[in-house]
Structures are given as C-alpha cells and as structure tokens.
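On clarity, I found the account of how folds are encoded harder to follow than it need be. Since the whole study asks how a given chain folds, the encoding of that fold should be made plain. For illustration, here is how one protein appears when written out as sequence plus structure tokens:
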Amino acid sequence: MAIVTDAHPQPGLRSFSASLDLESPVEDAFTLLCAVEKWPVWLSFLRSARAVDAAAPLALGSEVLVRSSLPGDEEQLYEVDQFITNFHLSLVGAYSVRRRIDFRIERKTTFAKLHVRLTYPSYGGRLGAIVDHWRHGRKLERVLDDALIHFKGLVEYRVEDPILADF
C-alpha cells in the first residue's frame, strides 16, 4: 500500500507525498513515467496530459500541458526543470513556480521505490488551508494512494506470467 503524507513545506502551500515499492526494473518504471500521454490512466486527478512537442522525447526544458482537477486553473502548462534518467522527473508550473509535480525512483536490490509529491498554492492563510483540506485535500490523499497502486499494476504487468496466461 502507498504511504501518503500531508506536509506543509511553506506557508500557503499544500503538499502531498506518496511512496510505493515496485517489483520491476527502474528503467521500466521510468519509461512509464516519461509517457506523458499515459499519465491520466494512472493519475486519476488528471483529465489529460500531453507534451507540447510530441515528437521530441521528454527532457530538461520540455513543456507539458495538463488538465487537472487540482485547485487553480483547469489547464496548466508545466516545464520539466529537473531530469535525471532513470531517477528523477520534476515539473514546475510555467506561470506559477509554486505548482510542482515530482517523481523520484530509487533503485533497491530487487525492486524499485517510487516517490511522488504534488505541491500547489493554497490561498487565504490558515483558514484557506483548512478549507482547502476539506474541499480537496482528503480526496487528493485517496486519489494519490490509488494512483500509485495503478502505476504499480501497469509497470509490473507481464503477459508471460502463468497466472495471467488465461487472459
């Protein structure tokens, strides 16, 4: 099961983190992370995601257009600001540097560990943070937990498994 934590890194920011162990090579997990158009399949709070330049591979400086149910504008432009192959993919909002989506994969001995962090601004001081927690936070915690389980299923699926041979 994914471990979801709610932290307040800075005043006015909401941040949710989740981690999950994967029984697959780091390379396979990172390849799925870089498939931006597949993000809505496993990140259910996203309605759509696409790279602005679909012909180029995802790299530092790439732009990604995301439609989400996160608080704020419905359609947001993100830019890849950190990219380390098979380890780290981080996106920051193009018009609001307080919006961030971070993916990090750790290589363990026989498995990998995926860490995801979502950060977005919460306006209105302490009262605004409380209202945001009741309106969006609890749902986002559940959705992020489910998203990592979906990701785990996608990256660990193998056609040659004897259990899945009937399908």
In short: The first strand starts at residue 3 and ends at 7. The chain is about 25% helix and 35% strand. The radius of gyration is 16 Å. The chain has a mean pLDDT of 82.
